[in-house]
């Protein structure tokens, strides 16, 4: 089963996934990235009126498989 790495970004803070997760295919990794981003959104409160959260998925060869970003801009 392929291994995928889910790197997260909260503004300028990046957290690299060193362990990875075994998933059946790229589509499963994309779905997992969306779920992870949704979970991060529930955990974080914006610092002010702007927040950017992102998840980038890479395969075991280091190639980017998927990237998803959530932006909050308050006025």
Approximate strand percentage: 35-45%
- Show unreliable segments: none
Give Rg in angstroms. Answer: 13 Å
Say how many strands there are. Answer: 5
Q: Label the overall shape.
A: elongated
Structure, described:
The protein has one helix at 26-43, and strands at residues 3-10, 13-15, 21-22, 50-59, 64-73. The protein is an alpha+beta fold and 75 residues long. Strands 1, 2, 3, 4 and 5 form a 5-stranded antiparallel sheet that branches.
Mind sketching the topology for me?
Elements: E1 3-10, E2 13-15, E3 21-22, H1 26-43, E4 50-59, E5 64-73
Antiparallel strand pairs: 1-2, 1-3, 1-4, 4-5
Jot down its keywords.
alpha+beta; five-stranded antiparallel sheet; 44% strand; 5 strands; elongated; 75 residues; single chain; 1 helix
Short description:
The protein has 75 residues and is of the alpha+beta class. 24% of the residues lie in helices and 44% in strands. The protein is built from 1 helix and 5 strands, in the order βββαββ.
């Amino acid at each position: 089963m392929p291994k995928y790495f889910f790197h997260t970004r909260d503004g300028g803070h990046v957290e690299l996934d060193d362990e990875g997760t075994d998933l059946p295919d790229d589509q499963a990794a994309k779905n997992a990235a969306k779920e992870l981003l949704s979970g991060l959104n529930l955990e974080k409160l914006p610092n002010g009126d702007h927040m950017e959260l992102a998840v980038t998925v890479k395969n075991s060869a280091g190639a980017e498989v998927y990237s998803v970003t959530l932006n909050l801009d308050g006025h």
